[in-house]
Amino acid sequence: MSGRKEFILTLEGVNKAFEGFKAINELNFYMDAGELRVIIGPNGAGKSSMLDLITGRTRPDTGRIEFGKNTDLTRLNEYEINRLGIGRKFQTPSVYTDHTVFENVLLSLKGPRSVFSSLFHRTTAAQRSRIDEVLNTVGLAARADWKAGALSHGQKQWLEIGMLIAQDPKLLLVDEPAAGMTDEETHKTGQLLLSLEGKHSIVVIEHDMTFVRQLARKVTVLHQGTVLCEGTVDQVQNNERVIEVYLGRKHEPKRHL
Ligand code: ADP
Ligand code: MG
Q: How many angstroms is it from 46 CA to the middle of ligand 1?
């Protein structure tokens, strides 16, 4: 046995082209179990495409994608990958707007239950206490009886994060959670993600640098489908290649970094 910590996620030599356009190009990415990793990069850098590949939404043309020590994700479908404990939050919230906040979390709890049986049979005490716990974590306990449609954009995002947590994923993939949020909501989202650290391994894609700084964890910069650099927030913000990518083009407006 080597003393090396096991990677929860390994991508090695991964390529993915769409009609000749290389969205992902020789991508290598390694993440330790328990990490909270932030991925940044300009629009079109391949960040969401990388999550598509991990979650089985698309298949790599070449390369290895492994979960833990020896689970080859490229051989599994989206459903199987989700069942392994990989949960993904897309950029836009997708909650059941006509159902309450409580019911939304109930519907996402693990277990062999149809939507019908979830909503029309009595919930067990264990389910209720798990749902309360999740709603407390995401700060929506006081909104449990609200229709999800009545929540603010930020609250819907937190509810959806709650629905993922309810499934107790080992790896949580969160794509631009702060998009469209107010500064205060963004800050709360940062606190929420930090509170989940240790319980889940987490990948957060984001380009709001105030938010990235709040998380203050290892940052991976993606550019043209490949890793441009990795390090602390300060290291990547002072990296010449990163500055070039974000600020280098003289006649374009300054990008968000
Ligand atoms: P990011 O999330 O970093 O902004 P994306 O991963 O969404 O970037 O996109 C990277 C590039 O790959 C873009 O040019 C996008 O148009 C292209 N792309 C991503 N997914 C697909 C797809 N399913 N079909 C065609 N092109 C795609
Ligand atoms: Mg994206």
A: 6
pLDDT tens column, 2-27:
455 689 999 999 999 999 999 999 99
Whether residue 45 has its Cβ less than 6 Å from ligand 1: yes
- Whether residue 174 contacts residue 201, with contact meaning beta carbons closer than 8 Å, is answered with no
Q: Is 97 a domain residue?
A: no
Q: Which ligand is nearest to the CA of 27?
A: 1
Does residue 115 have a pLDDT over 80? no
pLDDT at 245: 87
Q: If you measure from the C-alpha of residue 205 to the centroid of ligand 2, how many angstroms do you get, rounded to a whole number?
A: 8
**What is the CA(206)–ligand 2 centre distance, in A?**
9
Report the distance separating Cα 137 and Cα 34, nearest Å: 18
Domain assignment present for residue 105? The answer is: no
Provide the number of structural domains found in the chain: 1
Q: Given CA atoms 235, 240, 242, 243 in this order, what sign does their dihedral have?
A: positive
Query: CATH number for the domain including 45?
Result: 3.40.50.300
User: Which residue segment(s) compose the domain that 205 sits in?
Assistant: 4-92+169-256
Is the whole-model pTM more than 0.85? yes
Confidence at residue 254, expressed as pLDDT on a 0 to 100 scale: 47
